[in-house]
Design goal:
Layout (H helix, E strand, L loop, with lengths): L1 H30 L8 H7 L13 E2 L14 H4 E3 L10 E7 L8 H9 L10 E11 L7 E11 L9 H5 L2 E8 L5 H16 L6 E6 L21 H11 L1 E7 L11 H22 L1
Parallel strand pairs: 1-4, 3-5, 3-6, 6-7, 7-8
Antiparallel strand pairs: 2-5, 4-5
GO molecular function, one term: GTP binding
Protein name: Multi-organism toxin transport
Pfam family, one: Ras
Length: 286
């Protein structure tokens, strides 16, 4: 009798092993993205809120130790810490960097990395994040110096047509909008980016217009202000910024790997910081 049950037991064991493998493979398929698929956008959207609070996505970290930590809803005092104190508990102040293709040989990401003093280490397709601690002084309060934990968010030019921009813009407090005279159409792109920011960010945020007019051995700087040019005069440029909601404008004519916060890009960032923090302090007093 025993011999009659040996074969069925072996068959049953084989079937159980096969069933276990099938269950395991199905489990893997439901939890692991298939080859060629991307879950980057879904992950970003799902991670946008964690218990109702924003998440810091730091792919490149500069002078900080808070990669991937949770942060709460941000107000001006949360950004500030007196100089000399650790910023490990400070909330990042988010600035987005957007704009169409400028027509030059550089991208806005190059200027971000020059400002941070780092070499390009990887390429990206949609969005990239950088963290940096900067020193800030209130206007008229030279004795008060504060450390600000800054998050720069670089968004690809093609993302203007994406439905994900509302997620990318979330919790941003200011924007650097790029254009370049080598591609005059990018000026209209800057206006469209400004409109998109106004539409998709819940509260008004300051925006600075940045002109990429960098020259090198391949491309020369363009004279874009004057009679018959893109702007007839500096006054016309100022009026353009006022009409389209830009608080100021800056022109980058060359790469600057050493000046950091004193570079043209750094001056544009500082301009935004002044606008953001001063306006929030006024709101806090009212």
């Amino acid at each position: 009798m025993a011999t009659k049950y040996e074969l069925p037991e072996e068959v049953n064991e084989k079937r159980l092993r096969t069933l276990g493998m099938e269950v395991e493979m199905k489990t893997l398929k439901t939890n692991v993205a298939q080859e060629g698929e991307t879950c980057e956008l879904d992950d970003l959207e799902q991670q946008s809120e964690i218990r109702g609070r924003p998440r810091s996505y730091a792919f490149c970290e500069v002078d900080s130790d808070t990669d991937g930590r949770e942060t709460k809803a941000m107000f001006s005092e949360d950004y500030l810490q007196t100089a000399g104190k650790s910023v490990s508990n400070a909330n990042p102040l988010k600035i987005i960097c957007v704009g169409d293709y400028t027509g030059g040989v550089r991208t806005k990401g190059v200027f971000v990395k020059d400002y941070l003093g780092i070499k390009p280490s990887h390429s990206f397709t949609c969005i990239d994040f950088y963290l940096k601690r900067v020193e800030w002084q209130r206007r008229g309060h030279l004795e008060s110096c504060y450390s600000i934990f800054l998050q720069l968010c670089e968004i690809s030019d093609m993302e203007r047509f994406s439905a994900m921009t509302k997620v990318y813009f979330k919790y941003s407090k200011g924007a650097l909008v790029f254009w370049g005279p080598h591609n005059p159409a990018s000026l209209d792109g800057a206006v469209q980016w400004r409109k998109k920011i106004k539409k998709e960010v819940s509260l008004p945020i300051p925006c600075v217009l940045v002109t990429d007019n960098v020259a090198d051995s391949c491309v020369k700087s363009v004279n874009w202000i004057g009679p018959g040019k893109i702007f007839e005069s500096e006054v016309a440029l100022d009026e353009f910024c006022k009409d389209h909601g830009f608080v100021d404008h800056f022109e980058i004519k060359s790469r600057d790997l050493e000046s950091g916060e004193k570079s043209v890009f750094g001056q544009a960032v500082n301009c935004l910081l002044n606008e953001i923090l001063q306006s929030e302090q006024k709101e806090a007093k009212t």
